[in-house]
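Exercise: predict the fold of this chain.
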Amino acid sequence: MAITVYNISSTSARVSWPPSPACLDTFYSVMYDPNWNSLLMGFKRKSFMHEERIPVSQTTAHLANLLPQTTYFLCVTCQAANPVRDQCQVFVTLSDSSEAQDRVGWEMAKGVWLTCCVLLLVIAAILLWGCLHTTCAVPGRGSDSHPAVTNVVGGDHLASGRLYTPRGSCDNGAKRGAVMHTPLLSAHAAKRDHELRTLAKLSGSEPA
């Protein structure tokens, strides 16, 4: 019979065993003792300090009120019979300090896990805010800045045309204006002279 002892603490443990065909209509006897003299007395049932009767429908038992850091000798038999070597198992309960250390370690691990989760949430929130800010701000800024850039470029172009026009080009423009105005004045004077001559012919007093 393979006996398994698990969930061992400083004051409790749990034991399980496979069902036995010989115990179909009876009960199981779970016997345990912290005294190693039970081994020397040939696995006698009366040598065990504790005994629990478990219904045949169950194949597990919970052992409570154990002593911390103590070696126990446990046997499971059918109908309170004397156990044999294959029906016995040895286990050791934990100490109170080891349980406290395990509890402290578990609390520290849980605290570290919670801290990491909070940091990951904060980093994710910052990244999400940055992505949303960039995605929402760039299109609006581009639409507003396009006319401004055009105006600035146009203004710079006009300003550059006004501010950086060489003095020589201004003088050349003045000269060209004077040259263009001179033929116009000559044509106007010729036209006026022609009108005066016409009037003189009509009046019969054409000057020589």
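Check your answer against the key: The first strand starts at residue 4 and ends at 6.
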